[in-house]
Specification:
Strand 4 and strand 5 form a beta hairpin. Helix 1 packs across helix 2. It is built from two helices and seven strands, in the order ααβββββββ. With about 160 residues, the protein is α+β, with helices and mostly antiparallel strands. It is rod-shaped and about 115 Å long.
Length: about 160
C-alpha cells in the first residue's frame, strides 16, 4: 500500500490568496466611490458658489444703477466693500463680499469714465467673492470670484 499523496493545504493557500485579492479589490472600489461622491458634492457646491457670486454681482449692479444715492452708498473711488450672508434656498449660508470701485480714469478735459465712439461713460468695477465652508484650510471650502465692469448712465456731457 502506498501512502496518499500529500496535496492538502494547497487549496487553502489559494483560497486565502483569492480572499485577500477580492477584499483589496472591494476596498479599492469603496474608496473610489467615496472619492467620486466627494468630488460631485464639491462640484455642486462650486456651482452654488458661482450663483451666489452672480447674486452679489446683480445686487451691486442694481444698487449702482438705481440712483445716485445708492450708487454713492456702495461705490467709491478706491473701492468700497460690502459683505452679507445669503439666507434661504440652496444658497443659504454663502458669504458674499462685493467691492465696488468708482473706476474713473479721466482723460484730460473729461470728468471720468471711458470712451465709446465719441461718447464718454461713467464706469464701475465690481468684484464679487462668494464663499462657504469656513476657510481654505477646510476640505469643504468653496469659493468663486466674479469681476464685472458696469456703466452707470448716459454718456457724460462733452
Amino acid at each position: 500500500m502506498s501512502p496518499e499523496p500529500r496535496q492538502r493545504g494547497f487549496s487553502l493557500v489559494s483560497a486565502i490568496f483569492l480572499v485577500v485579492v477580492l477584499a483589496s479589490l472591494g476596498a479599492y472600489i469603496v474608496t473610489i466611490g467615496a472619492v467620486q461622491q466627494t468630488a460631485t458634492a464639491l462640484s455642486l457646491q462650486g456651482v452654488r458658489a458661482y450663483f451666489a457670486a452672480e447674486t452679489g454681482r446683480e445686487w451691486a449692479v442694481y444698487e449702482a444703477t438705481t440712483s445716485q444715492a445708492t450708487h454713492d452708498a456702495i461705490c467709491q473711488p478706491g473701492g468700497k466693500t460690502t459683505s452679507f450672508t445669503l439666507s434661504g434656498g440652496v444658497l443659504q449660508g454663502f458669504q458674499v463680499q462685493v467691492t465696488c470701485d468708482d473706476f474713473k480714469n479721466p482723460p484730460a478735459g473729461k470728468t471720468g469714465g471711458f470712451q465709446e465712439g465719441n461718447d464718454w461713460y461713467d464706469l464701475e468695477r465690481v468684484d464679487v467673492t462668494a464663499a462657504q465652508g469656513g476657510g481654505p484650510a477646510n476640505p469643504d471650502y468653496v469659493s468663486r470670484h466674479i469681476r464685472a465692469m458696469v456703466t452707470t448712465g448716459a454718456p457724460l456731457p462733452p
